[in-house]
Design brief:
The complex is a heterodimer of chains A (737) and B (142). By secondary structure, chain A is α+β, with helices and mostly antiparallel strands. Chain A is rod-shaped and about 215 Å long. Chain A is built from 22 helices and 23 strands. The radius of gyration of chain B is 14 Å and the shape is globular. Chain B is built from five helices and five strands. With 142 residues, chain B is of the alpha/beta class. The longest helix of chain B is centred in the first third of the chain and has 14 residues. The chains are: A alpha+beta (737), B alpha/beta (142). Chains A and B meet through helix 15, helix 16 and helix 19 of A and helix 1 of B.
């Protein structure tokens, strides 16, 4: 409003003035600058006038400054006072003095940064009579500067540090320094996100704070618990302006002990993942500062990257250690080659096999430098095909020559290494010494073979044993049978008595009846005759059987066999007649006497003669012959009959031959078996030939019965002789008629 | 004609009875049967037989033992003993244990004819030192 207008209208003027004042006040209130003037009195001393903006910047009014001329000095932060004085002194000299930035304490207790730009005024003589100062609140700037600086330093520090544990205290310190906190702690998230662990704590120097060195404030928290827990769970920073006012969050007791009043926790977030929380505590009550929170969260992100990287590095290192230990300690050879089959890596076991003292002796070289050509060529061939096909070589058994010259077998697996772009950059191989194993396998195979062989031998043996067993069993049966037959002999006496007595009674009875029945019909007579015959037949069987089974007593005497034969013929002469059998004799003259039991031999001859007669029911010629024979070498081979005799020995051969139908082939083997007979029951006992054989064997001779070509059967007996004349009487066969 | 006296010593009743019956039916003999071997000597003393037909195998005493007793007894000194044996070898049964050499024997079962012939031979030759062999029964077919 124009001045003129103001003068003419007082209310409007007052209103306008008031508006202006209010505007001014508002301006002042939000001013970050104010001006002060210092007048130097000629006699020394000075007066200072502070402009109205001073309240906004310092919190004190101009009036308070007037009231206390030293106030301006008192509000300067103690560490900056000397710098300020120096600055004033410099201004007072009139020299061009750059502005000074220093801290003051705002009336509220906060520290503010101001820039003091002083402009001196000189008089004509060039002496400074006054100066004006422009105070600018640069707290914000300073904060930003500090933040930037801190971030720069942090970046550098984090990049160059090796571990979280080492760098974190410095990080916490920087945070406290930059943002003016007293205590800071770093909480790491345990794997799985289940607990927070307090890993690092830093505090400013200060009496009460030293308590923290002795007691661990808190070691672990569950998510959601306490300040760190809340931050971790929400992923957002949390600010506590005054612990004494705090009702929601549980306040750890040490906080009050140490005298901390405010805190701020912010997350270390890597994207959506929270890797930790940092808490900052201050001794003063502090109101939330959104700018600081922003800065802290940004810092948190920066730190989290570091944390994550460090964790990855740590875990990688641990794995690498594990792998290294594994590879180094494996007894198997482990090696890495490039596509030209040059060694890129070799573990101690592999080096031993190659005979290399150190890794350097191996790197860059190939199998051809260590193994004979034929082996190395084979290995290279396998590797070339592996590189070309991309197919791993699994469990190949291959021969190897170790550095010590020994030839061994190994089991090799080679696997191509991919370069990440789909190509093959090399291979990793592992070889195990299986020489022992192979030897063991060979031994086992051999053992199995031996086992199989011995098993088959065993089987054979078992079979042979079985056969023997069977033979033994049948021998046993034969023995039992023989024993039975023997015991029959033992029973003979009893049998004889028990059977012959009744037979005698029967015979006497029959004869009595025949004699004494007054009149006998033909039937009765026939019956009685039959009965008598029956008794006689029974007796015949018994006698023959008993004779057969009886212990033999053999009484040989020197006999003329022709005479024995003739007597036998005479004994059956009636039979011969009735059977119309003609006897043809061919008896040798001058046979030497033969030691025989005449009765027994007679019995044998009779048996054979009767058989011959019976073989010719219609009659026929019955040929009997005797001759003396000297055993020639080929005779025993030609005929079994001569086998018991020695070459050169003299034997008498008796033959009885008929012209009957002969003996069926199937019966020939059983001829001499006791009770074997082809006759009808009641005719003959079947014991005849077995008795004949016994008799002949008693004499040490042989008997052979066989069919002859012209029809009929010939029984041949060969009996030992003892030539009675030792003066060389001629004993050639002499056929007589 | 005087009937000759025959003492039959055999423990089998049927056999002894029939033998007795058969011999008596000839008309030439007078017979006595004694079943118990131990009473044979007593019976012989009383009966004074000409011939004693002795079974070989009897309970209590064997035929051999009875023969010895008879021989020892003065009253039976001139009795002729003929053994009736069921053994298959009469010779061995009668002779092998050292009894009277060549003692007569008949092998059972013997026909009456054989028995009588033997008795007659015994009677005619009286008591002989050397009896010669015995008689096998007849009727052997094979």
């Amino acid at each position: 409003m124009k001045t003129e207008a103001l003068l003419n209208e007082p209310e409007a003027a007052i209103r306008a003035l008031r508006d202006s004042e209010q505007r001014y006040a508002r301006l002042l209130g939000s001013s970050t600058q104010y001006v002060f003037s210092v007048r130097i009195a000629p006699e020394g001393g000075s007066t200072t006038a502070h402009g109205p903006g001073c309240e906004a910047v310092t919190g004190y009014t101009a009036g308070e400054f007037e009231a206390n001329p030293n106030l301006w000095y008192e509000i300067i932060q103690s560490e900056d006072r000397s710098a300020v004085l120096t600055h004033i002194a410099s201004v007072m000299t009139g020299k061009a003095t750059p502005p000074l930035e220093h801290q003051i304490r705002h009336k509220s207790g906060q520290i503010r940064w101001i820039r003091n730009t002083a402009i001196p005024h000189k008089d004509e003589q060039g002496r400074v009579v006054s100066y004006d100062g422009l105070i600018t609140d640069i707290t914000q700037q300073k904060c930003s500067e500090r933040l930037l600086r801190m971030q720069c330093l942090l970046t550098s520090e984090l990049a160059h540090s090796s571990s979280l544990a080492e760098v974190m205290p410095r990080v916490l310190q920087r945070l406290c320094d930059t943002f003016e906190w007293d205590v800071a702690s770093y909480w790491g998230v345990a794997r799985g996100g289940q607990t927070l662990h307090c890993e690092v704590v830093w505090h400013r120097a200060g009496e009460r704070l030293e308590v923290l060195d002795k007691t661990a404030p808190c070691s672990s928290l569950a998510p959601g618990a306490g300040l760190p827990g809340r931050v971790c769970m929400s992923g957002e920073p949390v600010w506590i302006a005054d612990f004494e006012e705090e009702t929601v969050l549980q306040v750890p007791p040490w906080v009050a002990e140490v005298g901390l009043r405010s805190a701020c926790g912010f997350p270390l977030n890597r994207g959506a993942l929270n890797v930790g929380v940092i808490e900052l505590y201050g001794r003063l009550v502090r109101h939330p500062d959104p700018h600081m929170l922003e800065a802290l969260v940004a810092t948190g992100t920066q730190i989290s990257q570091f944390v994550v990287r460090k964790q990855a590095e740590d875990s990688l290192e641990a794995e690498r250690q594990l792998l290294r230990t594994l590879v180094d300690l494996l007894p198997d050879c482990v090696y890495v080659k490039d596509t030209e089959s040059r060694f890129l890596m070799s573990n101690p076991a592999h080096r031993r096999v190659l005979g290399a003292g150190s890794l350097n002796e191996i790197l860059g070289r190939t199998d051809f430098d260590f193994f004979p050509l034929e082996f190395a060529s084979r290995y290279r061939e396998d590797e070339v095909s592996l590189f070309e096909s991309g197919q791993p070589l699994i469990n190949r058994e291959e021969p190897v020559r170790f550095a010590d010259g020994s030839h061994r077998w190994v089991l090799t697996t080679k696997v191509p290494l991919m370069d990440g772009k789909g190509g093959i950059s090399g291979l990793v191989g592992i070889s195990r010494d299986i020489t022992e194993q192979k030897a063991a396998e060979d031994r086992i195979a051999k053992a199995y073979a031996d086992l199989a062989a011995s098993e088959s031998t065993l089987k054979q043996t078992v079979e042979e044993l079985n056969r023997s067993h069977e033979e033994l069993k049948s021998a046993q049966l034969q023995l039992i049978q023989a024993a039975k037959l023997e015991s029959v002999g033992t029973l003979a006496a009893g049998v004889a008595h028990e059977v012959k007595n009744p037979l005698q009674t029967l015979l006497l009875g029959v004869e009595f009846l025949v004699r004494n029945l007054p009149e006998m019909s033909d039937d009765v007579r026939t019956a009685l005759n039959e009965m008598g015959d029956a008794v006689r037949r029974a007796n015949a069987i018994i006698s023959e059987m008993l004779q057969f089974s009886a212990a033999t007593d053999f009484r040989p005497t020197a006999e003329d066999l022709n005479a024995v034969l003739e007597r036998a013929l005479w004994l059956i002469k009636t039979r011969l007649v009735t059977a119309r059998v003609t006897v043809v004799r061919d008896l040798a003259v001058g046979l030497p006497p033969v030691p025989v039991d005449a009765r027994k031999l007679e019995q044998a001859f009779i048996n054979l003669l009767i058989n011959a007669v019976d073989a010719m029911p219609g009659g026929g010629p019955l040929r009997v012959s005797t001759r003396l024979v000297r055993v020639e070498p080929e005779m025993p081979k030609r005929s079994r009959a001569f086998q018991p005799f020695a070459v050169g020995e003299f034997v008498v051969v008796v033959e009885i031959q008929d012209r009957g139908v002969g003996i069926p082939e199937k019966n020939l083997a059983r001829l001499f078996d006791p009770f074997f007979t082809t006759r009808p029951p009641g005719v003959g006992t079947g014991l005849g030939l077995s008795i004949v054989r016994n008799i002949v064997q008693l004499h040490g001779g042989t008997i052979d019965i066989r069919n002859v070509a012209e029809g009929g059967v010939c029984a041949t007996l060969a009996l030992r002789t003892q030539p009675l004349s030792s003066d060389g009487q001629e004993t050639h066969p002499d056929r007589g008629r | 004609m005087d009937k000759k006296r025959i003492l039959i010593v055999d423990d089998e009743p049927g056999l002894a009875r029939l033998l007795q019956a058969n011999l008596e039916s000839c008309g030439r003999y007078e017979t006595l049967v004694e079943h118990r071997a131990e009473s044979a000597v007593t019976a012989a003393r009383a009966f004074r037989p000409h011939v004693v037909l002795l079974d070989m195998v009897m309970p209590c005493l064997s035929g051999r033992e009875v023969a010895d007793q008879l021989q020892a007894d003065p009253g039976c000194a001139d009795v002729v003993v003929v053994f009736l044996t069921a053994a298959e070898h009469g010779a061995s049964a009668a002779g092998h244990d050292g009894g009277p050499a060549g003692a007569r024997w008949i092998a059972k079962p013997a026909s009456l004819e054989v028995i009588i012939r033997c008795i007659e031979q015994s009677l005619s030759s009286g008591r002989e030192e050397k009896g010669g062999g015995g008689e096998e029964h007849g009727g052997k077919d094979r």
